[in-house]
């Protein structure tokens, strides 16, 4: 299984930044890097990156590389924007496929969208179609995901945080694993359990909710 992750744009792409100066690429590359680490914990998986920290790789070069490597899946990761650069209320998550609506791409987009909404709690803007280059010129299953709005003050603050970036990466990796039935390596990352005792159940429920929001499994035993 060969996967290509594409952090959209680059450090120097004009105008691709929030009103307070965060470059979109900062979020894109972080989420892509984290998703790559997660996906490499599955058997028989090779993950390629379409972007570069050295330069803004042209779109044609990105899709040509994916086609040449004959990857099975292409996921382009972005942060959204609305308007002319001022703060506004547009917000939420949306995932794009090509207007030809290839079924495998649609199924993957649905899984990514569902997992992102579950892990982030942001508004569900749904699955949409667009004639984006990375969706049109790739010969494999391809989707483009917008993980929140840089022009929404609350969402821009989230896009800056390591926790939110990790949640987005987890959602994307989980969706790909579900789509292709990937199996974890037997020598995957170690897991640790923590047990905490409270006298009041409401305190336990509060912690359980916080842990679940951060992407961890939690259970209350009385």
From TrEMBL:
GO cellular component: outer membrane-bounded periplasmic space
One GO MF term: N-acetylmuramoyl-L-alanine amidase activity
Classification via CDD domains: MurNAc-LAA (cd02696)
Keywords carried by this UniProt record: Hydrolase
Domain MurNAc-LAA, first and last residues per copy: 63-177
One record GO biological process: peptidoglycan catabolic process
Domain of life: Bacteria
Protein name: N-acetylmuramoyl-L-alanine amidase
Organism, scientific name: Cytobacillus oceanisediminis
């Amino acid at each position: 299984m060969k996967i290509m992750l594409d952090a959209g744009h680059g450090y120097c792409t004009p105008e691709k930044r929030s009103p307070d100066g965060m470059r979109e690429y900062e979020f894109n590359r972080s989420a892509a890097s984290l998703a790559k680490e997660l996906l490499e914990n599955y058997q028989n998986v090779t993950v390629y990156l379409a972007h570069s920290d050295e330069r803004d790789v042209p779109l044609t070069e990105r899709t040509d590389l994916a086609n040449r490597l004959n990857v099975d899946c292409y996921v382009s990761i972005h942060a959204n924007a609305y308007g002319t650069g001022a703060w506004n209320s547009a917000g939420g998550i949306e995932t794009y496929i090509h207007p030809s609506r290839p079924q495998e791409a649609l199924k993957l987009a649905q899984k990514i969208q569902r997992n992102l909404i579950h892990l982030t709690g942001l508004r569900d803007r749904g699955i949409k179609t667009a004639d984006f280059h990375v969706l049109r010129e790739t010969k494999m299953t391809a989707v483009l995901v917008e993980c929140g709005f840089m022009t929404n003050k609350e969402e821009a603050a989230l896009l800056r945080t390591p926790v939110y970036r990790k949640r987005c990466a987890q959602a994307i990796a989980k969706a790909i694993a579900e789509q292709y039935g990937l199996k974890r390596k037997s020598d995957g990352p170690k897991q640790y359990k923590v047990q905490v005792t409270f006298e009041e159940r409401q305190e336990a429920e509060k912690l359980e909710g916080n842990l679940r929001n951060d992407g961890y499994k939690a259970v209350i035993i009385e």
